[in-house]
Amino acid sequence: MSDTIIILPGGERFRLEWRQSDPERWERRLKAKYDESRKAARADKARCLCRHRGAVLPLQIRYRADSDSYHLAVWPHEGPLHEKTCPFFKPDPGKSGRAGYVSSVIREEEDGDVSVTLSIGLRRKGPPQPVDETPLPAPDRPGRTRQRRMSPLGLLNLLWERAGLAEWKPQFAGHRTMPAALGRVASAGTRIRTQKRPLSDLLCPVAPDHEGFARRLHAIVRAEGKENHLFLAGFVDAIEQGRGNDFTLTLTGQRNGYRCFLTLPAAERNRLARSHRLAAATLALPEAERQARVAALLYVTAQHITKPDSRWKGWIQAEVRTAALMTVSPEMIPVESSYELAVAEALVAADRTFEKPLRFDAGEDLVFPDFILQDTVRSAGYPMEVFGRTDEAYMARRAEKEDYYNTTFGAGGWWSWDAITRTGIPAFPPARNRGTP
């Protein structure tokens, strides 16, 4: 949350990073502006630099009697209106797979950070903590699976969402490089806590030509040692047969200064191939023929090679315990099929503004759009759905989706493409004219 500027009542500039670096100043200035902010008109209250439809988004200055302290908080129901990279942004859970979790899995903190409950343990010593398999009570909404733990795939989705990489605007063109994307992921990790520690303590991006990330990986391995698990985030170049039954996994940039070997057990490789079929199909193609990339979050144990006679002394040997893969477009937009990839690329080419709701750990029975156009006259966004199969089970599911969209948005109030029977992507809903409020 460093370098996040807040404007206090009266125009005073305030930095969110002071909460950690200068807590005395943080408390003193919020206390001084507490009454003024409460009495001020909406436009004159404390605020960040985000705007929604031209208007400022105010923040609350709150006082906690139990700790005799002050903090900043987003206004109720306005979290989704903030920019995705703003610490006060809070996604609308009803528009993505977040709705598949029980409320305790993702806990929104008052300062914009989140705490998550993972399905894997991060204890310093011993094996990972077991997952609590206690049966849940009946869900509060029919047909909705409720997950009580977040998997590595859910965590990868959360990092992508918090990094602002699941949305696209025309001005992003040319800026979504792999190092830039992973830099955003690293920053997002500072605002996520799990098991009472920042995820950034254990998150190591692997990016081409990034010496800082490489040094960080070695520093964390030295500090944590082989008795802890680390997260590596990057883009997969290849998964290849290694010695014996194991495989080697190579991340883009891994050979460029990281001095790291990655071993992938055969059982985990086979699970990834079953669970992430689009990613597996993408990696099966020659690199020059790939139209998408495969992002990865790897949960590994790692240690430095210390054998004095080894030519690899000082390198890192890491073993993947479990992993999550996510196929993304060249602009880093996550996609779940080749048809979604085609739509995402067409939207980018048309200079449209849109977001991609992520599935997290939700089951297939949870309905939410494949994309949401954000530049139409509809302020809440224009839902988009891609239909890509014709088997009996899928067609029954399709009928449920169509009924949901027609009921929620009205007939003609949502866009769809039947990619199997209709050649060519249909015209997109028109963008509102520039200057339209």
UniProtKB/TrEMBL annotation:
It comes from the Bacteria. Pfam families: DUF1173. Residues 122-147 are annotated as: Disordered. This is DUF1173 family protein. It comes from Acetobacter musti. The lineage of its organism: Bacteria, Pseudomonadati, Pseudomonadota, Alphaproteobacteria, Acetobacterales.
